[in-house]
Fold:
Amino acid sequence: MGHTVTDLTPTTGVEISGLTGSRLVDPVVAAECLDALERRGVVIYREAHLDDDQLVAFSRLLGEVVPLPMGGDPRHPEIQKITRDASQSKLAAYREGTFYWHIDGSTATVPDKATLLTARQIADGDTGDTEFANTYAAYEALPARGKAELEGLRAVHSFTSAQLLVYPNPSPKERAAWDRNPAREHPLVWTRRSGRKSLLLGSTAGEVVGHTPAEGRALLDRLLEWATQPRFVLRHRWRVGDLVIWDNTGILHRARPYSEQSARLMHRTSLAGEEAVA
Ligand code: OGA
Ligand code: MN
Structure:
């Protein structure tokens, strides 16, 4: 049986239907996936229904799979369970942080290359969709003056900045615990070896180097608003079994809020970055 490939928005996303299970675990499919990721930023395999072995095997065909610091299931130490159910994940309390635009691993020198998320259980109604914003397209669409304004500017990314969005009034002890995660300076515009450029923004960006906190905040807010305009955004409504992969270096993402009691459960793998931010 053949499969169908459909571009989603003018700049972003490709949806592939008709490829499921072990049929994905194929070097030809992986090569097509990497090509689509490069061109379209987000690749969606509708109702692919990969089991955990297949998810890890497919991830390995795409790149180097990052092992988790605290493995959940010892049979699949690469798979992280994304859920708000604390009985299933030690990190459940941090999931509210994913409701804000971010990239994964933005406080590292080399952010993750891509993230794979597959839906085991979905949220009720219209909650728990995932949105993606294309920051290559957002950079490209800036007027020349806007691009020039950003040249040489750097932002400080920290876990604390992201946490403050969720918990604006931490106790000094909480704040000190967050601050133990090292902060990282990155340029606002990430220029790849290939010459391709994207905006590097999101919840971890708190200050702009050389700006007052208020000026920096205003610039970061303005840029995030620019980059997440409807014309750069793709919204994914999940079905059980969907596998979604995104180029984490040039695509911001966020979950639309879902309740703490929701059964929503995603299995996730991450691919190690291949290029330091420069
Ligand atoms: C993540 C993430 C979004 C979602 O797992 O890194 O941001 O919709 N997930 O669950
Ligand atoms: Mn994320």
